[in-house]
Amino acid sequence: MIRIDQVGEKVTEVSLFMNDVVVGNLNREDPECTPEERYKRFQIADKIEKAPEEGVSLDIDEIGIIKKVAGKNPSPMVVGRVWEFLENSIAEKAAKKA
């Protein structure tokens, strides 16, 4: 198991598979991607890959990039799983603040 905290507070456990899917999507070739966007995608993927057991915090912009990149994946299952995971993480954080 690798632990990732997409929303900056409580660590959420996810399987290594989700980590691989997110990093794989960030590393996917995209001819429309500018050099700046490629570098930002590298930074996010590197941050996730180097995450310690206690997790990594991703800001809302990084989450948006992950969702945008995952949305270009031809598999609806991949898109759905990544988006659901991120949305559930955001909802959990919001519920705890209430």
Question: Main traits of this protein?
Answer:
98 residues, mainly alpha
Could you characterize what this model shows?
- By secondary structure, the protein is mainly alpha-helical.
- It has helices spanning 16-26, 35-49, 60-71, 76-97; strands at 2-4, 12-14.
- It has one domain (2-97).
- It has 4 helices and 2 strands.
- It is globular.
- The mean pLDDT is 81.
Binned, the helix content reads 55-70%
Strand order in the largest sheet: 1-2
Largest sheet: 2 strands, antiparallel
Q: What is the mean predicted local confidence, pLDDT?
A: 81
Kindly give the count of domains: 1
Describe what is shown at a glance.
By secondary structure, the protein is mainly alpha-helical. The chain has 4 helices and 2 strands.
Question: How do the helices and strands line up, and which of them pair or pack?
Answer:
Layout: E1 2-4, E2 12-14, H1 16-26, H2 35-49, H3 60-71, H4 76-97
Antiparallel strand pairs: 1-2
